Amino acid sequence: MTRRSAVPPPVTAVLDASSRWLPARLGEVERLLREQSGAREGPLGEDAGATLAAGGKRLRPMLVLLCAGPDGEEAAVRAAAATELVHMASLVHDDVLDAAPLRRGQPTVVAISGRERAVAVGDLLFSRAFALLAERGDGRAVALLAEASSALARGELAQRRDAFDISISERRYLERCHLKTAKLFECACLLGRDEASLAAFGAEIGLAFQLLDDVLDVSGPPERTGKARGTDLLDGTVTLPLIAAAEIDPGIRAVDLRTLGPPAAEALCDRIAASGALETVRSRALATIAAAKGRLDSPAFDPEQRHLLGLLADGVVQRYS
């Protein structure tokens, strides 16, 4: 059984409301994650283990387990762990591309071990994810996770192409969100159960998660986010709060993101907040969560599953409230 202290409040709330099978399964996932990212690979494994030890919300593996239900057993546990390993790998690679010094308030692999080793650590985590699924010959799961991993890469490339361009459209931003974030949430649900309404549920809470994460980058504070306020602005990543603020305050479009230093990024964050854009984006995220929960209003889901998935969706909002 997993320790309550090992998971954040949104997940703890789901565990506390669930039957005994769910905490036990999440504990099995944590065991697999430790095993797959441990020190057996030498220095790379040590860095991978440090990435795991830095923590995480475990929303994606929880989605796999909840969608699979109590009958999911080992296949669901493996799929849940594989999904989290892919997520971890993508974070390590993102930090390489961004030369990020901190993640979740801890030094990143690239900051500690350098670019080349960090790339290798991300590759190791990706390989362990697919090895977990391949060991049981689960071709469907491999195909789903491969598609989601490809979407992550395409989303990252799109974000790089759009860097520093304040003129990008909301539609373009949402396309990136689908690729970089929502697709893996959708995949997690489908790994648990092949159900179209669950795929839509996962994609919608994934989008809401990204919207709220982008709000938090502007609103901070650093002690809560584990990184400097306005990190996205400093990286040239144009998000919906900035796009929405520029619609309200057109003068923002004249800002050259390439010239920003930390003080100027803080000032731009204040300007975005003053425009009211953060409230607009939060409202959109809340509406997206409500739409996601509406997908669960079906006899295809038993009362416990509907309740727990709804709690998890609410936890996405609570994380940022």
Describe the structure.
The protein is mainly α and 321 residues long. 46% of the residues are buried. A two-stranded antiparallel sheet has the order 1-2. A hairpin with a 2-residue loop joins strand 1 and strand 2 (106-107). The longest helix has 26 residues, at 73-98. It has helices at 9-17, 21-36, 43-53, 59-68, 73-98, 109-113, 115-134, 139-161, 170-192, 196-219, 222-225, 231-235, 240-248, 262-274, 277-294, 303-318, and strands at residues 102-103, 106-107. It starts with 8 loop residues before the first helix and ends with a helix. The chain has one domain (4-318): Farnesyl Diphosphate Synthase (Orthogonal Bundle), CATH 1.10.600. Helix 2 (21-36) packs across helix 5, helix 4 crosses helix 9 (170-192) and helix 13 (240-248) crosses helix 15. The protein contains 16 helices and two strands.
Largest sheet: 2 strands, antiparallel
The helicity comes to: over 70%
Shape: globular
C-alpha Rg, in Å?
A: 19 Å
> How would you write the strand order of the largest sheet?
1-2
Label the CATH architecture: Orthogonal Bundle
Q: What is the multimeric organization of the chains shown?
A: single chain
The number of distinct structural domains comes to: 1
Structural class estimated from helices and strands: mainly alpha
Strand content: under 5%
Q: What is the terminal-to-terminal distance?
A: 29 Å
Low-confidence stretches: 1-6
CATH class: Mainly Alpha
CATH superfamily: Farnesyl Diphosphate Synthase
